[in-house]
Predict the 3D structure of the following.
Amino acid sequence: MDVQVACNISSLKCGPSSLQTVSVTAPGNGALRSWEMPADYILEEVEFLKNGRYGPTCKGQLKLDGAATAVVLKTLKGTSNSQEAKVFVELALFHVAVCKHENVVRMLYCQTRHFPMYLIFEAVAPGNLLHFLWSLREGASGFCHRLQCFSEKSVYLVAKQVASGLDYLLSEHRLVHGYVAARSMLIGSGLSVKVSGLAMAFETRQTGTVEKEEEAKVPLKWQAPERLMRLPITSRSDVWSFGILLYELITLGEPPFPELDPSEICPKTLANYKLKRPQNCGGALYDLMKYCCMWDFKDRPVYPAIIKLLESYIHLADTKPLSAAQPIDICEYMRKAGLGFQHPVMRIEALAHHEKDHGHSSDAKHSHITPSKERCAGENGRGIDAWQATVHERNT
């Protein structure tokens, strides 16, 4: 029996207003049989959220016998061809295989037997981590209630969960996330955190590369030097972005390098420009930021080392609520963060200069992914104990 979808699908631009029992001959449909949404479930109160890569993303309620669960739907647009449907089925298989960790967002069910096709994910509330951080600022909605519980200790707790999710993706599936930032994480009740935004990880699992158009969506201020120069991306490139995420957490959602215009990021980063220590940031946290953002990727820590450091900091952290003087101006944030900003000339010049000095070659169309499974000692042999000793010396 066909799944019942109690919403006007056409109004969401998900496809035709009635179900089409179209045969989707994509490999893997059989493997998804146990993940197909049962016929006695219905989707209600479906609301459009945004347009995604494959089609609209919506929120709704998944109901059975009067009990409702909040969910998020990723849909395939109704005009998709058979090849696009095949890729969508492969995306479902990817989530089935990969998303088995408490700190990675989970797919609950899918519908791949006919159009409209969609994937159903658990809804996490409050939701987007960046928006949550903004809500903690003075003058923002919900400020008085939420600010009481978000402190430096909270930063470490949140960061540890992000690092755990990323470590799982790398160690169990050899996946590089590719877009580590507060906007790619979800936060739930009790400060539980889940890594989301796995589109780039899916693409690299399929092809081993990131299309130029997808890479261009990642703001320059979150990109490691090797990424700006179009050299192979490794898990240590994600570690650089994790260092930027730490900055976002302690500043309650400020864009990194606020003193720099996006057009300055490439030359400054390649000249080993450092993140400035933000207000309210303790010495241990700032040292970890700098450690994650070392210019040479081999000098950056691996996730087990990061997790061990964060665990050691949690019970020593300040529990005083963090504060920020004013709410975020969205337009100003986008300008400072460089969302949508591209500087291709600078990237090309930087790459040409690096190739001349180091003999590298590049692919103008793709950024290549080189996952790695290095553990605590790191590629340069520097262990966690040596780093902790350095941090202790700086803080005493």
